[in-house]
Amino acid sequence: MRASASLCTPSVVRGMHTFKISSYNLQRSIGVGRYLSSATFDVGGYFWRIEYYPDGEMEMKIGDYAYISLDFVSTNSEVRASFEIRLVDQANKLPPLVLLSQKMLIVFRSHPPPYVGKDFLQPSLYLQDDSLMIECSITFLAESKVAVTTTSIDIQVPPSNLSNNLGELLKAGEETNITFEVRGESFHAHKIVLAMRSPVFKAALFGPMGDRIRRTMIIEGIQPAIFSALLHFIYTDSLPSMGHLYGDNGEEMVKHLVMAADRYAMERMKVICENILCKNLNVQNVTTTLDLANCYHCNQLKSACLEFITSPDRVQDVVASEGYAKLKRSCPAIIADIFERATKSHKI
Q1: Which residues form the BTB domain (predicted)?
Q2: Chain segment 15-46, per-residue pLDDT in tens
């Protein structure tokens, strides 16, 4: 006899939006019936908005009340959802205070929209530096899924340790057949590994113009620490420990790694370094980083620098910086790129 089984499971979609109101007491003066609106947020393809009435939705004879509501703002849509709106103590001293909650699923539709709101006393205990933090959680059921259930036995496969093995091979220096002389320091490596990972090394060691019997190669224009990190990446596909690569000295080292990666056509290494520099952009370093990105064909980093510079809250500080003045003198073409990006973004 052949037996089979199937299982129907609901597909649950959950999302949360945080709405912070600053200068709360100042904004209380907007008047009864007027509200502060959150940005429209998306949960599973449906759009919602929180409306907060700091002076209440209507006049109350007794007590000082505010009012909050959840609006379903998707067009021509319908969904069954549950929700909870709560106040959050930013000092983490008080538990969340639920203002509005619906545990059972109710129908939200565009026409007519549901009326979901509630009055509550002014939340003075939850004000922190005159700001109020509101969280809204929404849960709804998407289309149920039916699947045939089967029984299987999985064998745990250990992760690959190839990169660790190659790293140990480099560290031990066993069976090496090429030595690099870099500013008085020697580095031993394996030609076949270098050729496999870098087209530049492949051409130098095995190409028509290369020297297959060469045992020593002098490397100019690169620091020993940078060349060591390059070899580490070639063997392990990862940079050495990055804990020391932050701050001004670390930033300069990463920039030298970009140059080395470009020199030896190590594209993945270059993109990793681009990502590190991108995460540490600031007004003081963005122009020098942009110059580097332009010189060494780091298109993603260049785009991030242009986006950073043309941001409305930073552009004036960057333009007033010494680095921007130097960049304008040394590479006016990049300045044209900056203004082109700003124009396309309608930021200046």
Answers
A1: 176-239
A2: 999 999 999 999 888 989 999 999 999 998 89
